[in-house]
Amino acid sequence: MPKYGIILLNLGGPDSIKNVERFLYNLFSDPDIFKFPFSQATQKVFARLISKLRAKKVIKYYQQIGGRSPILSYTLVQAKLLEKKLKPFLDCKVYIGMRYWRPLINEALEMALKDDTQKIILLPLYPQYSTTTTGSSFNEFYRSLKKLNIDNKEIIEIKSYPNNEIYVKAMVERIEEAMANFNMDDLENLVLIFSAHSVPVKFIKNGDPYLDETIKSYNAILDYLRNKSERKEIYKNIRTELCFQSKVGPVKWLEPSTVETVQKLAKEGIKNMLVVPLSFVSDNIETLYELGIFVRDIAIKNGVKKFVVAEALNDSETFIEALKNIVLEAVKDEK
């Protein structure tokens, strides 16, 4: 049996306040997100300038959620649990490759090669594919492979799993847990808000499937809630909204924004909101600060009484089961 190296691909996040600026520099240096018409050197200058300008503000956000990103801690747990679940079926080891902060993708690759893995599986922790996330991580992986002059490794790419049944079930479980914060009277004036990370519209126009796959996830979760869950009759009567967060810069991004959606609903008299982070499998600054503090404050100031953010999948056993099945399916298809 060949030895598999499974690399979990994710965004990454600064592990301390002092590394926020360096993390931002890596992010703004990514040509898969910020495309410059001139040289790579020009982009590096831009990245240095923007990261310096934004660092002070972003540091304040991280200070409100413990002084660092929790994304690595959650990903370490996910890696450990996934490896344990896969061991009875595969000779494998699970590695972590972050795009913008350590452990970086090239470091994960080097570790996998050092362990004499015969086949490498790229498993994005982005359920919905985008060239700005999974695509960027794949590109960085292949750049790292080229630098090491490696051309004899078999690579298995898992691109996305937006409506995977077990992943959808894991999302529903998180929603059910968060629903415990609302009593029966609250449900008459409750909106379920699905908040996905936004991307520039130009990527969608150029064929990026992210919006389509986000809608697939949204519809699959709603279908499960309204037709398969124990409280399906309740969910059939709960209004839902899909919106997008975390816009950066002046270009047009996917809309409506999460902030605009919350403000609109508040003006309509909605008093109870449950926000579901749709494209995040680990809690991070976008869920803990942006949704949990920034958007919450806007909601409360606009008259909302209960504003709850569902926990990201994090260490969900059902989510790990989904990842296990996705890996085993990819291995089976490859044979």
TrEMBL record:
- Copy the pathway line from the protein's UniProt record: Porphyrin-containing compound metabolism; protoheme biosynthesis; protoheme from protoporphyrin-IX: step 1/1
Keyword Oxidoreductase on entry: no
One example of the protein's molecular function in GO is:
metal ion binding
Compartments annotated for it: namely: Cytoplasm
Q: Which UniProt keywords apply?
A: Cytoplasm, Heme biosynthesis, Iron, Lyase, Metal-binding, Porphyrin biosynthesis
**Catalyses which reaction?**
Fe-coproporphyrin III + 2 H(+) = coproporphyrin III + Fe(2+); heme b + 2 H(+) = protoporphyrin IX + Fe(2+)
Q: Record-annotated residues binding Fe(2+)?
A: 197, 286
SUPFAM superfamilies to which the protein is assigned, alphabetical: Chelatase (SSF53800)
Annotated Gene Ontology cellular components are: cytoplasm
Major localisation: cytoplasm
Tell me the GO BP annotations in alphabetical order.
heme biosynthetic process
EC identifiers of the protein: 4.98.1.1
HAMAP family (alphabetical): Ferrochelatase
Protein family membership: Belongs to the ferrochelatase family.
Cross-referenced NCBIfam families, in alphabetical order?
hemH
Q: What does this protein do?
A: Catalyzes the ferrous insertion into protoporphyrin IX.
The protein depicted here goes by the name Ferrochelatase
Q: Which source organism does the UniProt entry give? A: Candidatus Kryptonium thompsonii
Originating gene: hemH
